[in-house]
Amino acid sequence: MPKEKVKDIEIYYELTGEGENLLLIHGLGSSTRDWEEQVSFFSQKYQVITIDLRGHGKTDKPKGPYSMKMFAEDIAELLKKLGINSIHVLGISLGGGIAFQFAVDYPELVKSLIIVNAGIEMPVDSFKMKLEAFKRTFIVKLVGMKKMGKVLAPRLFIKPEQEELRQKLIERWGENDKKAYLSAMRALLGWSVRDQLDKVKFPTLIIGSEEDYAPSSIKEEYTALIPNAKFIEIKDARHAVPIEKPKEFNEIVMKFLEEQS
């Protein structure tokens, strides 16, 4: 069970395979476990680094508040301790936002950037965003994490044959620490890197799902703001696309990574 002391916490991480370094950053309420289809695939050619973010999985769960810059700094300090100074970075959802924050704060470490179903900001000036944040907070505080998993599972995995994925999500979501989950969620609120995208000068791939919470048009809009970026949409897929469609997702990412060699 490898852990490394970083600032005020011990971070759980796993290294698998050999080759160029590929970091996978999970989303809110997730952990290293949810990358299993990616680790087995990419570790055949890369050294894959998976971590449990602050407040998640086997990493320490200190009292908040958390911030996106804090998450990015945690990762930078961990990589420094591991002697890693060049890395391909892939993040999904909250992890995609953290990947963007890491890229603008530590551009010298990034070889390429892959963002999955995430944005460059999370403004809370709209009624819709305020309502969504309130609903999640209300559910978690009132009835707990497992209920939150039961709400999310049928939205992420809608097909009859995906019952096993729904049950796995509910079980794993229920293991989250309530206070740490809410601290991580609040880290996104009001966050933005829109004014810092000029620092993203390395090859960048934006992946969106056709049926994601946020439409592909939003991702295409910010892709156009990044000099060396391209956008790909995966059809008939929802937010958790690496789990829902691992084969198609992995092949898209591998093709992009091989283009950087």
Task: Note down, in words, how this protein is organized.
- This protein has one domain (3-122, 191-259): Rossmann fold (3-Layer(aba) Sandwich), CATH 3.40.50.
- It has ten helices and eight strands.
- The protein has helices spanning 36-42, 68-81, 94-105, 127-143, 145-156, 163-173, 178-188, 216-223, 241-244, 246-259, and strands at residues 3-6, 9-16, 21-25, 47-51, 87-92, 110-116, 204-209, 229-234.
- An eight-stranded mixed sheet has the order 1-2-4-3-5-6-7-8, sandwiched between helices.
Order of helices and strands: EEEHEHEHEHHHHEHEHH
Q: What portion of the residues fall into strands of 2 or more residues? A: 15-25%
Biggest sheet overview = 8 strands, mixed
CATH architecture level-2 label: 3-Layer(aba) Sandwich
Sum up the overall morphology in one term.
globular
Number of self-contained structural domains: 1
State the CATH topology. Rossmann fold
User: Which superfamily, in CATH terms, is the homologous superfamily?
Assistant: Alpha/Beta hydrolase fold, catalytic domain
- Spatial arrangement of strands, main beta sheet: 1-2-4-3-5-6-7-8
Layout of helices and strands:
Elements: E1 3-6, E2 9-16, E3 21-25, H1 36-42, E4 47-51, H2 68-81, E5 87-92, H3 94-105, E6 110-116, H4 127-143, H5 145-156, H6 163-173, H7 178-188, E7 204-209, H8 216-223, E8 229-234, H9 241-244, H10 246-259
